[in-house]
Amino acid sequence: MVEYLQKLFESNGFMPHGHCYFWRPEILFTNVIGDGLTSLAYFSIPPILFYITRKRKDLTHRPLFLLFALFIFACGATHLIEIITVWKPFYRLQGAIKIITGLVSVSTAVVLLRAVPTLLALPSHDRLEKVNARLREEVAERERAQVALRQANEALETRVQQRTAQLIKTNRELEREIEIRKRTEEDLLEKNQELVRINADLDNFVYCASNDLKAPIVNIEGLVTALKEEIPQRSEHVNAILKRLDGSLLKVDRTILDLTEVSRLQNEVTNPPVEEVSFAEVLEEVKSDIQDLIAQTGATIEADFSRVKNIHFCRQDLKSILYNLISNALKYHNPLRKPHVLVQTEPIPNCCLLRIADNGQGIDLEKHEYKIFSLFRRLNDQVTGSGIGLYIVKRILDNNNGRIKVKSKIGEGSTFEVYLPKQ
Amino acid sequence: MKKLDGILLIDDDETNNFLNQRLFARLGLCSKVKVLPNGNQAFNYLYNISRNNYDLQSPEYFRPDLILLDVNMPVMDGFEFMDLYEKLDNDFRSRIVLAFLSTSSHPLDIEKSKKYRIEYLTKPLTAEKMSSLISRHFPEEKQSIPNS
């Protein structure tokens, strides 16, 4: 092998190949020219293949291309050596070149064979073209869709902006509204405080009035009594005047007493002394207080406390309720008949119902419903009264979370229903 | 009715004082009645008497058996007077009966008066009210013995 390579360019002892052609020019030159042209062509193909592999970076079968280039170059070399051996018998070199060419050819064939499936899978240009066209169509469609989308987006955007503007406007309006409400609330609070102040002033006024009026009235009473004592012998005229004086004093006295009661109620809102009180006992007290009135009118007072006998309540308050309602029933009695008053109790859930029914004049409730429990409201000018009684009753019930209802028919009588809460 | 040595009226209402003095006279209750218009003057008066700081010959100065005290008065009211009065000499006070005499029947005033543990009378003062007050606080027989 080493000897073969050393003598690669030795031609001693061999004849040039031209001898086989007998140096006949027509055979020799057709062979030489044919081989020359072939090798020329073979040598020019590999650079082209190299060029392609260089330029096309995406080439999938680059090794195959390179192997082809080598294979063709090797074939070119066999044809070149054919020409050389016509004159120079380098047969060892020719053999070596042919062996190399053979090896390269075989490996190219093997590689090519193995690449067959992938080469078959490579799409053809037409197919690619079609795919491309479809892709372009798709791209165009997508662009159209995108345009539509953009338009929809823009429409949406404008709507969003419109809505936002609307919302901002509404928001501002709401803010203004809230501001106005706040101011109204503040005003209301202020007014409320003012009312509380005025109410306190009024309470104070009632207290002062009852207190400050009382002293001079007590004095006048004393002075009238003194006057009577100083003049034991009096004329009819003087007696008549003194009687009127007594009557007026009585009225003022009663008013002041009622005012004192109102003042007591106003100052005792927090916790009036509560105890177990018997209805019958309190009624007896009231009857003895108004015995003159009962005698005057010839009234009968019927009581039925069989269903509720006692109640946990402020004694003074209960007495005040009974006193005012019964004395009213007698004062406003019907002149056509003797007054009859029925006082009853009845148990109802969480309450005790105290009913005071009379056969008196009755009240025109349509006209007076809201007035009857007001301070200094008198619906009747024929009967003496201070206009405080029902206000006191209402106030007591308000203080105790109670209620009062009235039913009445003109000419037939009135029924007051007092709901006393269980305490 | 038992007679008293002297009565002190503390009230700024002149008419009321006039009527009360007239009542005492009619009842023949006592000859010596001193009237003072407010708590301050009354306290000074009683203070001087308790210290014997006065002219024994003067009919104006005497130790009263009974003091009738108004509640609402200018300068010093009845309650303020009571606060000071309770600081006076114990022995001096033990021989004096006190009662509020007021127009007010207001529960707040009555409640406030309770802590002084004295009588509370409402105006007008009448013969009945006086006689019941005296019979409660001045028993008849006790004083008649030393006098007889």
From TrEMBL, chain A:
Pfam families: ETR1_N, HATPase_c. InterPro entries: ETR1_N, HATPase_C_sf, HATPase_dom, His_kinase_dom, HisK_dim/P_sf, Sensor_kinase/Photoreceptor, Sig_transdc_His_kin-like_C. Gene3D superfamilies: 1.10.287.130, Histidine kinase-like ATPase, C-terminal domain. The chain crosses the membrane at residues 32-52, 64-87. Residues 125-201 form a coiled coil. Its EC number is 2.7.13.3. It catalyses: ATP + protein L-histidine = ADP + protein N-phospho-L-histidine. Keywords: Coiled coil, Kinase, Membrane, Phosphoprotein, Transferase, Transmembrane, Transmembrane helix. It comes from the Bacteria. PROSITE patterns: HIS_KIN (PS50109). The keyword Magnesium does not apply. This is histidine kinase. It comes from Adhaeribacter soli.
TrEMBL record, chain B:
The keyword Phosphoprotein applies. PANTHER family: RESPONSE REGULATOR RCP1, RESPONSE REGULATOR RCP1-RELATED. This is Response regulator. It comes from the Bacteria. Keywords: Phosphoprotein. InterPro entries: CheY-like_superfamily, Sig_transdc_resp-reg_receiver, TCS_response_regulator. One of its GO terms (biological process) is phosphorelay signal transduction system. Pfam families: Response_reg. The keyword Cell inner membrane does not apply. The lineage of its organism: Bacteria, Pseudomonadati, Bacteroidota, Cytophagia, Cytophagales. PROSITE patterns: RESPONSE_REGULATORY (PS50110). The modification 4-aspartylphosphate is found at D70. Residues 6-138 form the Response regulatory domain.
